[in-house]
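Data availability excerpt. The first of two example chains:
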Amino acid sequence: MTEFGFMMGLSPREPIGRFGDIARAAEELGFESAWLADSQLYTKNVYIALTLAAERTGSIRIGPGVTNPVTRHPTVTANALAGLLEVSDGRAQLGIGSGDAAVFPLGLPAARIADLRAAIADLRAIGAGEPIAAGERAIEVATGGQPYPVLLAGSQPRMLRLAGEVGDGVILMGAADPRLTAWQLEQVAAGASESGRTLAELTIDLWFTISLSEDRERAIADVRPWAVSQARWFHRWKELPEALRPHAEQFEIAENSHDFGSHLSRHASGTSVSDQFVDWVGVAGDLEHCVAKIRPLLELDVDRITFALLAGGRLERLHRYGEELIPALRAAQPVSGAKG
């Protein structure tokens, strides 16, 4: 049976303990996972908020989603995760990627495939209590020896194949579209085969943004900033898979309108992508529409669906997902077809 999780960024306008309150409510509603964005320019400190959440919950898995090896050296991340493992009684998880809003505004390049391969190798070694190379020296992290799952976030083939090859799982960043997701899973499976593994041995976590509302215009407006952000990334792809080609014009529009200063904000200025594209890349509408849109994704080899929890009534949104949407999705999920 597919698990469900949520992710969010903690706005500077929100109390540092807000994520812990939301994670506790999510746990009570049956969510299995809670991710918190690590973006030092636009959100509050991820590890302080995660620590408070760990103290307020008892079963839900928690972790940074996602961090990167550019602004945080693997030894820094490993040390932070060791502390999070301790306060959460082993419930910590790590999402890592190439860097986005945390990296580009600083004028730094995103982590390359080789950088992420090396970072994950270091994180695994530290988790196993082994030394890692630092130039010509071997160093050890005193808090090492505590393993945790490492999920690599990606959307394009090379990153997805790397996730399949070296990760404990993958965070699929793309769209709430079964054709694109199936294509991405093929890339992960190809990478897994390189290390003698299959998809069944990995945690597949699909992320997308959703707004459940009887007011369709409001729902579309909620999801649009994320849709613009996704379209902007798609614009940079050298080659588009078949599922993305019909939307190429939207990518061009987004590239000319997206602003990192309002990255993923509900008040972002980029509003020119079409309503149709917004609902293709995300999910926006009433309960019946949301169930119909998400149900095909449940038939894929996905272990967990993670909803991006938008600002503006977060707890109300969470309760609607937990009390209405997830039960409806579980009732609609086929007995066979998806993992688990």
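And the second chain:
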Amino acid sequence: MKKQAIVLAAALLLFGCSKMELGSQGAKSVATGSAGGAAATNVNSQLERCAEPFGTLAVNEDHTA
């Protein structure tokens, strides 16, 4: 019984690693494609788009914690 539970848990974890199809017509969200400014590809026309970037965001993670 314990072995079956481990196998089932491993299968569920690996299922989460399946390939995501960006820009797929079967996507369940309007957020598809890439957002690279002028180089954006497969852009969804339902999303708001800015003509130019507003700025840059930096994230600093505390590595000493």
